[in-house]
Amino acid sequence: MFRWLRWIWPRSLAGRTATVLLLGLVVVQVAGLTIHALDRVDLQRLQQARDISQRAFTLWRTLMQTQPDRRPAMLDEFELPPGLRAALDDEPAARPNYPPAPPPLMRLFRVEAVMSGPPRMRPREYRVSGGSRPGVMHLSLRFADGKWLNLRVELPPPRLWHSDTFLISFLLMTVAAAGLTLWAVRRMMRPVRDLAAAADRLGRDVNAPPMPEGGPAEVATAAHAFNTMAERIRRYVADRTQMLAAIGHDLKTPITRLKLRAEFLDDDEQRRKMLADLDEMEAMIVSTLAFARDDSAAEPSVPVDLAALCRTVLDEASDAATPEIAELITYAGPEHLTVSARPVALKRALANLVGNAVAYGGAAQLTLTPPAARLLRIAVADDGPGVPEGELENVFQPFRRLETSRNRETGGTGLGLPIARNIFRAHGGDVVLRNRREGGLEALATLPV
Amino acid sequence: MLRPMDSTAPHILVVDDDREIRDLLGKFLEKQSFRVTSARDAREARKLWPLGRYHLVVLDLMMPGESGLDLARWLRSQSEVPIVMLTAMGEETDRIVGLELGADDYVAKPFNPRELLARIRAVLRRATADSSTDPGREPPAKVLRFAGWVLEPTRRRLLNPEGAEVPLTGGEYELLMVLVERPNRVLTRDMLMDLLRGRQAGPFDRAIDVAVSRLRRKLEDDGRNPQVIKTVRGGGYVLSATVERG
Fold first, then answer.
1. What is the C-alpha to C-alpha distance for residues A363 and A380, in angstroms, rounded to an integer?
2. How many whole angstroms separate alpha carbon B186 and alpha carbon B179?
3. pLDDT tens digits, residue range A104-137?
4. pLDDT band at A139 (very low <50, low <70, confident <90, very high)
5. CA distance, residue B57 to nearest chain A CA (Å)
6. What is the strand order of the sheet A125-130 is part of?
7. Distance, CA of B237 to CA of B192 (rounded, Å)
8. Does any CB of chain B come closer than 8 Å to the CB of residue A11?
């Protein structure tokens, strides 16, 4: 029903507040204007009526004092105000069969004053009647010689807008008030926008600087509450990190012992398997710690040859792979490309992408595209089965692993992709996955330069 | 605890605060025919130090009381004994400080015993080789400069002439280190393999030529007409550059 409302109802709080205020302003202005106009019309009518009746009596008195034969000439010379017409006739224009004159008009024109003048000025007889239209009145006055002066009185239509400047100034006032309202509302809503920006910053970086706690009381309270919340989140994250670091650290000693004990096993096969299990455990701890601590933030950015970094990651992957798979680990891109980055973190991120491609896709084709529009691209493609479309984003959730990956016992902690994404995002870039049309999965990473 | 054994076998001092690790490591190294003495902290290590002639110290950096770094500093002031540090993973700064103090190598905990063994053997071999050729062992360099390039052993990184870091694989780093430590000396594949086997865990034999070609690419050294790492007819490589140590 109020569908049209949606078109004018703004989405922002500032817009809505401004709309309500402006609507109020319009209502007040219209009401004021109406009252003013009505007042003005009343006054105008009264003044016009006075004017007409005065002029009419002046005309009567003038004609009375004039010789009867000169009266028509005199009438022609007489200047009549708008709404008043006069004629000299043998018969009265006001006839008894006409409707009676409307009393408000009679009052307005003070018809009875005709008979209140000095006796020699009074007409011999007068007749009043209404006209063909309401608002018209005929007044007929008889001279001593039997002729009639017929007066037709009609109030001119009221002129609501007396002056043009009034309208212009009224418009200017409205526009100024509207502008002031918009400015004030925007200014008052700024803290809300600041709060949103601060929340956004906190989402990206838990150590973002606190909000200034100034301004109006409500704003200061909100900012203080926000800062308290941010502090609690920081403490929570720090506690969690501390706990994970402690667990990781405490696990090192038993794993070291187990690795040493394994060396005293006589069964070579069992020893090899045990050491492999322990290596896997260690890798899980290392990646959990890396994820929890997010050490990429602590590492300084330095100039680094990204092409050499990519090659290093690929070479290490192919050294660890079987010769058949090593053949499918390839690099395409420039020989050298210096960028500013955190080498240890970036190497870990790329190693995770390449490691996934090799483990699940049996290949890793890395393509480094030099910067275009200040953004360089790294694509890592494989020949594997890909990932269901609905899971492409979910696999970036920590500890999220696809059933296929669990079943295939490829190992892994479900942290490789989240860590890679954290690192790319810490560099101002991002990484997404997509299924290739020709088959296989592709990880697309971007880095600003 | 001193174990009288073959007195010609290298004698290793193991310093670690965890009793189990100490005992297991001792047994493991004895199985590999080393003589082993162990200490549970820096204080005990200082007490044991004058009682024997040690060929190498395996030192845990994370110990209660006096830290492993302080003990390493003290050991360095006493002698040139090689030190292999046991560091906790992720504690990069400790590792760098340890290497700068003059530790010869490090293994991150939890380590694979065989890797530690390989490192110990390599360090011992280098120490004997150095002492037989050079009268006083050269202190480890913080930076090595050659042909505009900078190699930082403590951080295990290579900087190109523009100052940008050029990442290397473990194998490439070890190979470059061996070459840079012996500039203008022809090293045959056999010599390289022998020098590298101790440092690099894993199969490296087949990979020397591959590693050299990868290194040349990263050093912007034209493979058909190499200027930095030259191929020697008859099977060998030589780093053809002046190396400045600083």
1. 9
2. 9
3. 777 777 777 777 777 777 788 888 888 777 778 8
4. confident
5. 18
6. A84-89, A148-154, A136-142, A125-130
7. 9
8. no
Q: A316 and B170: CB-CB below 8 Å? A: yes
Residue among B62, B89, B114, B117 with most chain A CBs within 10 A, to mutate: B89
B41 three-state secondary structure: coil
| CA distance, residue A401 to nearest chain B CA (Å) | 26
B172 in contact with chain A, both atoms CB, cutoff 8 A: yes
- pTM, 2 dp: 0.62
Please check whether residue B168 touches A, CB under 8 A.
Answer: yes
Q: What is the DSSP string of A346-383?
A: HHHHHHHHHHHHHHHHS-EEEEEEEEETTEEEEEEE--
Please report where in the chains the tokens 């860590």 appear, as a residue.
A419
Residue B50 contacts A where some CB pair is shorter than 8 Å: no
The CA distance from A104 to B125, in Å, is 129
Facing A316 at nearest CB: one of B113, B164, B169: B169
Most confident of A74-78, A92-96, B38-42: B38-42
Q: Which residues of A touch B157 (CB under 8 A)?
A: 343
Q: What DSSP element (H or E) covers A154?
A: strand A148-154
Q: Which two tokens stand for residue A200?
A: 């956004």
Give strand ranges (E) for chain B. 11-15, 35-39, 56-60, 83-88, 105-109, 144-146, 149-152, 157-159, 165-166, 187-188, 229-232, 236-239, 243-245
For chain A, say whether B213 makes contact (Cβ under 8 Å). Answer: no
What percent of chain A is predicted at pLDDT more than 90? 20
- State the nearest Cα–Cα gap between B133 and chain A, in angstroms: 35
Q: Which residue of A has its CA nearest to B155?
A: A344
The Cβ-side half-sphere exposure at A99, using a 13 Å CA radius, reads 11
CB count in 10 Å sphere of residue B173: 21
Query: Cβ neighbours of residue B122 under 8 Å, at least 6 residues apart?
Result: B105, B197, B198, B199
Confidence class for position B1, pLDDT limits 50, 70, 90: very low
Strand B229-232 versus strand B236-239 pairing type: antiparallel
Which residues in chain A (239-258) have CB-CB distances under 8 A to chain B?
249, 252-253, 255-257
Q: Over the stretch A241-278, which tens digit does the pLDDT of each residue have?
A: 788 778 877 888 899 999 999 999 889 899 889 988 89
Q: Does A338 touch chain B (CB under 8 A)?
A: yes
Phi-psi region of A143 (alpha: psi -120 to 50; beta: other; left: phi over 0): beta
Q: How does pLDDT run across B131-162, given as a tens digit for each residue?
A: 555 444 455 677 899 989 999 888 888 999 99
What are the chain B neighbours of A260 within 8 Å (beta carbons)?
Answer: 21, 24-25, 28, 113
pLDDT of residue A162: 59
- Work out the average pLDDT over B77-91: 82
| Residue from the list B18, B167, B170 with its beta carbon closest to the beta carbon of A309 | B167
pLDDT band at A285 (very low <50, low <70, confident <90, very high): confident
User: Which tokens sit at A89?
Assistant: 């006739």
- Strand, helix or coil at A315? helix
- Residue-wise pLDDT tens digits, B5-25: 556 789 999 999 999 999 999
**Interhelix angle B208-218/B189-197, nearest 10 degrees:** 90
Residues 90-129 (B) with a CB less than 8 A from some CB of A: 90, 109-114
CA end-to-end span of chain A: 53
Angle at CA of residue A432, ends A427 and A436, nearest 5° = 140
B123's enclosing H/E stretch is: helix B113-133
B136–chain A Cβ distance below 8 A for any pair: no
Q: Which pLDDT belongs to residue B164? A: 92
| Contact status of A94 with chain B (Cβ, < 8 Å) | no
